## 1
Amino acid sequence: MDYVVEMVGIRKEFPGIVANDDITLRLKKGEIHALLGENGAGKSTLMSILFGMYQPDRGTIKVSGKEVRITNPNVASRLGIGMVHQHFKLVEPFTVTENIILGSETRRLGFMLDVRTAAKRVEELSKKYGLNVDPYAKIEDISVGMQQRVEILKMLYRDAEVLIFDEPTAVLTPQEIEDLQNIMKNLVKEGKSIILITHKLKEIKAVADRCTVIRRGKTIGTVDVAETSREEMAEMMVGRSISFKVDKVESKPGEPVLEIQSLTVKNSKKVDALKAFTLDVRAGEIIGIAGVDGNGQSELVETITGLMKAESGSIRLNGQEISGLSVRERNENGIGHIPEDRQKRGLVLDYTLEENIILQVYNKQPYSKHGILQPAVIRKHAEQIIQSFDVRSGTGARSVVRSMSGGNQQKAIIGREVERDPDLLIAVQPTRGLDVGSIEYIHKRLVEQRDKGKAVLLVSLELDEVMNLSDRIAVINNGELVGIVNASETNEQELGLMMAGIHKEEGTS
Ligand SMILES: Nc1ncnc2c1ncn2[C@@H]1O[C@H](COP(=O)(O)OP(=O)(O)OP(=O)(O)O)[C@@H](O)[C@H]1O
């Protein structure tokens, strides 16, 4: 058999947890092979082993039939293995070419850095694989989708034959996702082989040839994607059947909890990011914000939560003007926030899980008394959240958050914010990076908050999620409210037009 990579019987143990337990994965030349598993199942660990960042405790790795020891990423690179990480590793003020040759060309050419020759090669590669990247563009001036292509070019420049993509579409817009899928198909057409880590079954169906499923560190099996349904793959992954639809009864909205009136906000470049934006979110309803990324969603959320200041307009929470309040005061007045960037805004990565869970309440009873923290109470509270939100980590409440898998970090934030029981819960991309089982659970909890009479503001780039979960959908384009529609009366086409800035009446006429 023509395998480019064979990982057989791989085991890796971390304190308190066996992350990989006898895992086998075989990658054929010229295929796209999906790696599917729940949050914390051990996917990133397995790929870190292949990329030389961790050493396996047991098991063998063969590259093109030859057994190898991949002691560090340089060895991986020399063996033709490259990885596009979830968080890009690019130098913003440098050009595309400069980033690509960093750490590679400098050694080869000594002081004589021949950028022009390098740029020419970058251009050729870009053309060959349909990447369409300008070799002289600065990283800070190009979109996230383009930056990802630079990461791909970096691997191709180093002659990588095996490309690992770690949840590559998590940060992309729907159009960019489609483009990336075409790029991946071009890559395998030219003989490259791809391992794709993703939670999105739709994407696996769209591009992958085979899929290996792991659960709790163990291989469950490898299937032919064309012959396996989404439901079957989901069931293999979580061990039970999953519902892709959100079950909810008609909402019974009450009084407005959040009233935004004519809000105008300038972004960091002093351009209007929100223009006279007006929206009410009532008790007992979920309002979804639909829009293409970068149309004012982040500024809207940051202004409500107090991270940004408005130029003009008002924000009222339960009837009280909150524009002048600090972030902490807004929190205490009943705002919960599941932020877009979990690592920057949601967590202190070097704190333990329990410390992160009490970030907003550590100075309150019962978590502290007379200025002294109450460890037993804190532990109990953390353990309850860990249990009810199924947050998996090596040493439970005492785990340092940095060592937890991305999905479990996200579940911890959601648990913390939901358990604070805020009147207004702002959920930004709440299920990004989560497996289908966790998504089902988080959706249920958000609907439960609504049914308890809370107001929920959902901001998501996943149109399916917005349509499934929301009662009303507010569409934003270029900082303006295009319109509000009932979720049960709209469809993808209508929303798509509105997201492009076309008002309902114009769109139908
Ligand atoms: N450096 C580390 N130290 C301690 N534990 C770790 C370390 N890296 C990973 N783990 C643990 O190993 C398990 C597997 O984690 P891994 O990141 O491989 O999961 P994953 O399948 O990639 O999850 P996700 O889909 O959420 O990204 C998790 O329980 C995680 O907490």
## 2
Amino acid sequence: MLRSSISSNESELLDAATPRHSLLSGRFKQSFAYVTLRSRMPGIMLQVIQTLQSKQPELVQEYGEEVEKDLRVIIESVERLKRELSRDTQFTLFHGNEPDKLEWNAFLSELPHPKRSYFRACWMHAECYLYRRLYSFFENSRLLHNFDYFADLKQEDLKLSGVAMQSLAVATRGLGKNFESFSKLMRINLWSNHYEIQLSAFSHEKLSNYVDIDLMAQVAGLDKHLLINESTLVWNCLMKAKGQKQIVVEYICDNAGFEFFTDLLLSEYLLEHGLATQVRMHVKAIPWYISDVMERDVEWTVSFLMQHKQPMVSMVGHKLARMMAEQRLVLAPTTHFWTGPQPYFVMVDCNIELYRMFTGSQLAIFKGDLNYRKLLGDYIWDSAEEFITCLRGFRPCNICAMRTVKCEVICGLPEGVADHLLRVDPQWMISGNYGVIQYTDSLKCNCYLSSPPSKRNS
Ligand SMILES: O=P(O)(O)OC[C@H]1O[C@](O)(CO)[C@@H](O)[C@@H]1O
């Protein structure tokens, strides 16, 4: 079905890898974007349908039989969306109760016509649009407008990570305020982005013997695959703020589950050692890319940790809850900016409040591959291009990006490294086996923030 429907347009897709200096797109049939749109996304939609079917009895119990009608309509809508994707139809506008529909519709309407369908659009636009459409079916239902169809997967990931959490909880107690400990924690945190949900291939048995952070960092085995490690610059940036009354770190989260646990440990470390006076976590407003953290996942995680049978894990949970009660670890106000289709360099124009919030902070840590794609605009830069250039002016504060490499977007590598990797490990850009920790200083001057937009463009 998919084959024949795509093949009607197939002649317009190119049997090529994504060329340099272009946006990622399903148009390039040898790209990971194509594979994702052709088979991974339909698989995810099928998984949503199966989740709904298997949860039906539970939902009927909770909402009564009326929910069956919602379920029928939603399942039909997901199936329709799947067909639209396979036929590479044009994106349609949002017409329901979506709180961000104006922004989305403005964005969609401004897309050039040839770039307004799934396989022709920039991959980031098409993928974000699919996740956004999925949730709109629930938002517009009668009873399921708050339903998170990915919640079980996220919770399962944490439940399965008991041994790793226990080891990490022990290994991170009593860490000193020094670069070595900070850097190890950063690397463990980066590694957790590799082993997110569905990639949890790492061996818990191995970890169970290691309650020492040095060994854990080695188990992570990332060092040999850490292509760029600018954690010294991140450390220096935090050191520079020493003595300031307020040191805010913005933490733009990625996945829930075990990855989020390591985010919390890093936040705890920053707060405990006065490297930050406040860590502000930015989470997603709607179910996103399967495993992304939402506000309710934060609440669920902290309470899960508190009730954990391993005393050390439970102690960490209580400590985090205290930090939250003291407003040292806080959630940023919900915004749909993170679940929009836009690259981050447009933040100053589309969400000035958020941009202003960042300008008052010492550091923003962007976690994960999708955040990286949005920082770089889902664009194939020269692999040796400087990080600062690729941000295209998005420097409201000092910025750190930490991700394992899961798509063809990268920058800041020494000349020749990307070519070498391609020769020795052709899958290196999508395997998640390689990682980067990159950093750049903020723009020194934010004076243009106070001038009207027309002046900014002139
Ligand atoms: O959770 P992360 O690290 O943002 O990864 C999500 C990424 O993974 C992918 O599914 C590619 O594997 C992309 O869609 C996206 O960039």
